[in-house]
Amino acid sequence: MLERVGVGQVRFTVPGLSVDGRGAVMGRQMVVRFPSLDRLVTFLRLWSGEQALDDVQPGLRLMQARASGGPRDALARFTVVSASLVEPIARAARLAGGHCFTGAGKHFVQVRDAQAPLGYDASALEPAPDDVDMILYGADRTWSYVVEREIPFETLLLQLDLQRGDEGAPMRDVLFLAVRRGLGPVVIDYLHRAQRRHPTFRISVALCETRSDAAFRHEPPFWLMRLADLPPRLLGLLSGTPGLTLFTPIVDNVAVAIGYRHPIHLGACRQALPAERLFLFSPAPRGVSVVDPAPVFLPIGDLVRLSGRGALPVEVAGHGFQPAAAEALAIPLRIEPAPVATSRASAALVPWEQVGWLRSLCYALPASALRNHRLAVLERGVLVVAPDALSGIPFGQLLHSPGPGLLVPLGWEIRPRVSPVELAASAGATGGTLVVFPGPELAPFRIPADSISTLQAFALGEHPLPDLAVERGRVAARPAGAPDVGVEIENRPLGPMPLWGLPK
């Protein structure tokens, strides 16, 4: 049975209840009850459209519980981190056909309403057996629930089917295009030609492999293209071609197929969708594709095949064409200033006169940098290579990586702009080997993989710990004939004031 809370009341029967600044009663936690799971999903969509669900993460629990002698209901339980969350939650619950309760532990009372502006309290607590997980005190009846199944919020997001409709994301200038692997070369060539006709159209490409969540489910690799400022005439073509799927980004790492929307606002659930993964939500039966880790996109021009057709007259084939003519067509590689310089360095070539600075800097670098940074000792200095972006080393010649295993000075690029993948294979930058282009007037050089080690391995190499001196301790021997001293325990009465007389 519920009782209305009066003005100035500070003592309550239900544990966990307290009075806020307005005199209303609120507990440390809230429980929202729904008669079915689809009502719970509707509540989450209404709530996520008004507030970010990240405010109650990671304490949000979604459950299916059964009351004694009743059907199975859907429950949502979370911690109240701010009083401002209560009204939007209660409003969304009422619209979805649910009921809100507040309290802590196993006992929860109905949230305040028009009949009780300050809230409710229970006149007496129901006995809570060990098999009962929570008791909800309503205005009409009391529910004693036993939780049968708990649904992780992340699992619910990934298993819900998309609905027809427009997500209405603000990032319309950027789209993602998923292409089946067999169609990739054809689509890449077509979009590359379209990019030449539209100067503002920008395309970057990655080859993705999805994470398999089930033992017998495997999705083949596919091409993913990031399209910026897509021309309107291509939108209908790409969205209507079989084997191609266009996605609208909701946030940086979450995208939904065009023409569909997720039942829950994904922009309000960022903590449930980690930033190091890419989530592509497609309509049924494909569902969601999770790319872990998130792909690295490269310009589409690096993947277009180079072709020599049309470079020579047709008559040459029948008029004594010599192999030496092919050597005359070879173009030497060189590095030139880049028109758009990258600002992210991935390596540093430290000359020997600055190696002392690097030694001192090792004491300030974080543990992750010591473990992940690689180092090679050369005649011209020390090369430090970071796995992604180099940070914390402000000296030496900074280098960036235009392709796998290739290093070029920051602000420079390799000309002609051939594919970095093919250039790395031709230069031997495979299997961990690095090829460094130190400058426009300096010859490139190769560093074998076995000459590269981690930074912490070099830091420990000068002071090998196994060579430390060994000091053995000794235990003082008891004099011969010394009697064994037994342990005696004596209990004395302390009296009524045992601490009197002790120094303060």
Q: How would you describe this structure to a colleague?
A:
The longest helix has 14 residues, at 37-50. The relative contact order is 0.08. The protein is 17% helix and 28% strand. The chain is α+β, with helices and mostly antiparallel strands and 504 residues long. A hairpin with a 2-residue loop joins strand 26 and strand 27. The protein is flat and about 90 Å long.
What are its keywords?
31 strands; alpha+beta; 8-stranded mixed β-sheet; 504 residues
Strand-helix topology:
Layout: E1 2-4, E2 18-19, E3 25-26, E4 29-34, H1 37-50, E5 61-67, E6 72-79, H2 86-95, E7 99-104, E8 107-110, E9 120-122, E10 134-137, E11 142-151, H3 153-159, E12 163-164, E13 174-180, H4 184-197, E14 202-208, E15 222-228, H5 232-240, E16 244-251, E17 254-257, E18 260-261, E19 278-281, E20 288-291, E21 298-299, H6 323-328, E22 334-337, E23 347-351, H7 355-361, H8 367-372, E24 374-377, E25 381-385, E26 397-403, E27 406-409, E28 412-415, H9 420-427, E29 434-436, E30 445-447, E31 453-454, H10 455-461
Parallel strand pairs: 8-10, 17-19, 27-29
Antiparallel strand pairs: 1-9, 2-3, 4-6, 4-7, 5-6, 5-11, 7-8, 10-11, 12-18, 13-15, 13-16, 14-15, 14-21, 16-17, 19-20, 22-28, 23-25, 23-26, 24-25, 24-31, 26-27, 29-30
